[in-house]
Write the structure tokens for this entry.
Amino acid sequence: MLLSTPLLMAKGYSAPEAAVAAARARELSQQLEQSAALLPALLTMARLSFTRAELDEAAVLAEESLALAQHAPDPLPVITESVMMYVSYFRGDLEKARSHAERGAALYDLERHGSIALTYGDDPGVLFDAFGAWTLWRLGYPEQAHTRAAAAIALARRLEIPYCEAMALAIASWVQLFDRDLPGAKASLDALEILTNRYGYPLLKAHNNGLRGWLLLQQGDNARTVIELIERGLAGCAEIGFGLGTPSLKASLAEALAAAGKMTRARRVIDEAIATSTQRGELLDRMQALTVKGDICAASAQNDEAAACFDEAIASARKQAARSMELRAAIRLAQLRQRQGNLAEARAVIESAYGWFTEGFDRPDLRDARAVMASLNTPSPLL
């Protein structure tokens, strides 16, 4: 186990050497009685499966860890909650992820647990705030999400552990980009780039490239530069065997290709993103990819296929309570139905998605939704 963590940090979560070390640790621990002695190996194996996007295997290992953690000494229960949280998040179980984030945050104590990252690699407190932010944004609480993302960065800086700060910045930038907070995303990515240039961190360097490309895409910058950056990010993830989040980056790549007029390749890339996210069970990335495909189809006047993509994204988002993702797809579908003259369906779609929200009314998506409702002569219930 002492060998696994430095390998994870230096070479990436999916480094083959780290997998060999963790597998050997589990093999040895299985010769012992079922006890908390198994937990460190189980948790590391869960993390490795998770980062390779083997989410079903990661969930099995995480649940096994959770059972053992009930009788484990501190800090193992705290670490287990963090693993359960991010495995649940990427499997699309947002309420479960939120529950583990809140339970873990209640257990976390800076004085007792502030040195966990020195042996484990990640700080659970930082992860509870960072993934809590990501979860809250998806659930439809953008203001709370930004507060939690800032808290993650602040805690990481208090710890004075560069990797923890880099991780907090990376996750915060995902939240900011999804919420179209471009100044916030640029500040996070600039700070992240300083750390990755200084310390390496191949995974976070790859994400910085991909996310900076997505930022430039949202800013309307040169499509060629955007495509090069996102492709560099995807290549970096592939080089270290990291699969999580790649369908989301591929969706952004497809957007950039479509903006550059490369529609055939854009369709191929977005279909790959949907197929990959479906195969892995990355339901949240699949919602994004479906929405992007709908945009691409609508731009080519393939209205029936576009509507089917938006409908599927909305249905999936409702099932997972991913209200921000539902709203984004609903705006697109309402605009499509409006162009087709089907105003009743357009109103029903947008009102259903918008009416749930209780905060973040100055955020871009909510402003867009109000603009669509105004164009349909539908008074906003919360104007």
